[in-house]
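User: Please predict the structure of the protein below. I'd like the answer in structure-token form so I can feed it into my own downstream comparison script.

Assistant: Understood. Taking the following sequence of 176 residues as input:
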Amino acid sequence: MSGVGFLPDYSEINCLVIEDSAHMRTIIRTILQGLGVRRVIEAEDGVSGIERLEQYAPDLVIIDWILPILNGPELVRLVRKPSHPQGMIPIIMISSYAERRRVVEAKKLGVHEFLRKPFSARDLCSRIDSVLLDPRPFVRTDTYYGPAPRATIGRGAAAIDGLSTAVPDGANQIIS
């Protein structure tokens, strides 16, 4: 699933799954365990998700867009700050609603990957491989804090999913 002849060792990875559907949490947990992830922490709403994020400091977060109490985008806004202890955690956003505006918003919020439901185990595995095996540096500008957009790695501009905002060289700060 993770490439021909190469299966990464995810046994030490702690993953937080924030999803209100118990059935969907079970599917995601099963996929993660199939990848070798031993510790899967679950939350059924955004508030529980924030609590578990701060309590367990996972290595990866998979979060649904629509959640009770505190939705996915609101949760990402709270976490994706330079001052938050988990501000640089890899985030995969999942949603049944994958209109372009939602994908663009997720990228602007600093989400690493966006995955439309329903998805296959292969789809989820490829997103996990992307964020864990090929991490992007973090960028901080006046209006954005998150992974460097793929189109701009190695260049002096920030483009988020086709929306290009020129950032003068040196105006953005590479964090890691």
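That's the full token string. The first strand starts at residue 14 and ends at 18.
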